[in-house]
Amino acid sequence: MTDNTRARTPLLALKAMVKEVQGITQDMRFCDPAGKRPVPLSVYEQALPIPKRKAPPPEEDVFQTIDYQEEIEEDAVFKCPWCVVKLENGSIPGINEMQEVTFAVCFGIFNESLDNNGHMEIMNLIQRVYERFSVNPFLDGQYTCTGKFEWAVQDEDTYPYYFGAILTGFKFQGFRRENKYL
Fold first, then answer.
1. Which residues, at least 6 apart from 105, have a Cβ–Cβ distance to it below 8 Å?
2. 42 pairs with which residues across the strands?
3. Are 90 and 101 in contact (CB under 8 A)?
4. What is the pLDDT of residues 117-130, one digit of tens each?
5. Considering only the top CATH level, what class is 10-48+75-173?
6. Domain boundaries, the chain
7. Is 2 left (phi over 0), alpha (psi -120 to 50) or beta?
8. What are phi and psi of 64, to 5 degrees?
9. How much of the chain exceeds pLDDT 90, in percent?
10. Residue from 169, 84, 90 nearest 125 by CA
């Protein structure tokens, strides 16, 4: 006998969404600010990695230096290209009802073209997510896209860095009430 039961939780939905974004962007390449070469999008779950910090030089005594301030070696926000899939919120309207979770799929890219058109790459990423779930609303065979999408790009001029996000929701069956008489 085969057990077709699959776990359905917000955290497993998050992991499935990260894997899905990796898949739909795998053929895309973006400029790396450090090496100025095309690289794939790095996709993270819930947050960007914590930035590494420079250690003080070995000969410097940091405890006797009042104005010493640790320098950031890399700022994660500017270590493009990246995507963060965030579990924003969720709801369970009642026992035996469908759960709903909302994801924010956030993007950051680097594009130093003097045409100042990095927003086009951001919009292409947003469009890929929208198209994927418009054509096939199922995620991992168990989460169903609600069909609601909201997207935005940054308000301020952040050249050569560009940022944007798309929000969408998914529904899935929660726990079922036990009935000892069935």
1. 17, 21, 83, 84, 85, 86, 129, 165, 166, 167, 168
2. 82
3. yes
4. 999 999 999 999 99
5. alpha beta
6. 10-48+75-173
7. beta
8. -100, 0
9. 65
10. 84
